[in-house]
Amino acid sequence: MEEKLILFKNRKRFGIEKNIDIIFKNTTLVLSSLVAVVLFGIILVVFIQSFESFSRYGLNFLVTSEWNPVKDEYGAFTAIYGTLVTSLLSLLITIPLGVGTAIFITEDFVPKFVREIVGSFVELLAAIPSVVLGLWAIFVMEPFFRDFFAFLHNFFGWIPLFSSEPAGRNSLLAIIILVVMLLPIVTSIARDSLNQVPKKLRNAAYGIGASRWKTIFSVILPAALSGIMAGVLLALGRAMGETMAVTMIIGNSNAFSWSLLSPGYTISSMLANQFGEADGSQVSSLFYAAFVLMILSLVVNIFAQWLVKKFSLKY
Amino acid sequence: MNSLYYQKKLSRNVGDKFFTSLSVFCAFIAILPLIFVVTYILIKGGAQINSDLFTLEPNPPGDDLDAGGINPALIGTLIITTIASIIAIPVGVGGGIYLAEYSKGGPFSKFIRFGVNVLAGVPSIIAGVFIYALIVSTKILFGSMYSGLAGGMALSILMLPTVIKTTDEGLKLVPNELRYASLGIGASMYTTILKITLPSAFRSIATGVVLGIARAAGETAPLIFTALFSYYYIVGFEDLFYEMGSLAVLIYNFALEPYDAQNKLAWAASFILVISILSVNIFSRILAAFTEKTKRV
Description:
The complex is a heterodimer of chains A (about 325) and B (about 300).
Chain A: H1 2-11, H2 15-57, E1 67-68, E2 73-74, H3 77-106, H4 112-125, H5 130-156, H6 171-196, H7 199-207, H8 212-241, H9 244-249, H10 267-274, H11 281-311
Antiparallel strand pairs in A: 1-2
Helix pairs in contact in A: 2-11, 3-4, 3-6, 3-8, 3-10, 4-6, 6-8, 7-8, 8-11, 10-11
Chain B: H1 11-46, H2 51-55, H3 71-102, H4 107-121, H5 124-136, H6 148-172, H7 176-184, H8 189-200, H9 202-217, H10 247-255, H11 260-294
Helix pairs in contact in B: 1-11, 3-6, 3-9, 3-10, 4-6, 5-6, 6-9, 7-8, 9-11, 10-11
């Protein structure tokens, strides 16, 4: 009896050790809640700073395109339009390209090591900093596409999208560099979701006599659709917030134009350009624009996450 | 009659051929950008590499005979990235430990995981805007406005989600038997985490963290109005509180200069940045593949 009691006492932890345990747990708890603090902090700070401009221009800010620091008139329509057009059009090009590449990587047209090399090439593209892509776009891509743009203007000038003389830096170049940046995102997420489709489905389709592409279009792609959609939305969020490469190549002009061949503006390029030397109500207006950008990308991101949760593969 | 044989002209076979070639074409287009970007950087940037590049200050634009070197920007990038890591790694690893080890999948941890994903999607320039409002414009850091310290803080916001996610996922891969064994012989929770689970997940966490650092090193948008840029050598500790150059901002500023000498410097800086980021990426890939092969269940 006595002996057992001593053993039991020995088992007891020292108070100090217990305290360390509790402190450690609570420290990690605090550190993990910092994520929420930072996230709400960002939303709150940007909103408070934009309040002056918000109360003065209201929602008119979103639909007027006057940006005149001298007269203190601000409206971000050109930038918002530019953000949406560049990101949506670049996505439109990236989706078929990225999904096609993902199918190439997951099917067995060529030996495995070739597919692995293609896969890692595309993924390494994501590691190239955006500012370096911007540098490359200015000095290599722009001269390369110059003749093509002239051709586009001469033959398709009747379409409003190509109606202006090609400028040295323009929205179309920004769209092309965005395609380069979105390609790794769409490809790698599409590849992952295609890989997750169970082999059984493929075998069943082959078994009833479907050809390879009939199987891909009618069985595999629909099964992987939710994952691919989520990847596309993540890419959209990235495209809207992408700053450096776009700022360097889009030409940064607040004059509104339907033509993709004339210089444009996006919210992020406006921020990158003007934030450093802005003062007074211009700063508040820039914060307002930043707030709009943040809401846009938050909505897209949250929708993407909801989509993943709602439609994730259950096999 | 020979309906069991492969018939080339059957519409399904023609269609298959067509889509297969389309997919191959997509893959071909997809690998072109990396090849072109890397080739141009190797050629244009590689030609500028000499010892002056690493030791001299850049000359202000306009002086287009000789652009100087990128020493302050190189050191600046190292310092700013280090500051970001010092903030983001403890917070991220700690937060990841809570999510993977302590939380029981309740609403709080669900919310934090959701928040991590949302934070990862916040545009990088917004992080810069946030730090500008919080630190630069309020001069809260001992009266200094633009500073390397502020730049490091902006970068740490971008690193945080990556670090938390890799820690969380790395710890989840550690088999529960290890935890049971440790707790079973009487170790407390924090001893189990620090001595057993964290060390066994070390390699995957470290890989993720290093990739996150490499990514942060190339970020420009959060730095252009937090750390700004500087042409001068970084000499002492107090320089942390002043404008600080970085390779990324140097590339941005000098790419837009009309002078050839500055453009060349931008290519040289890109060369150094891309070579270091790509080698970190390739190295961690090889390491991961190697781990995959030698993994024992």
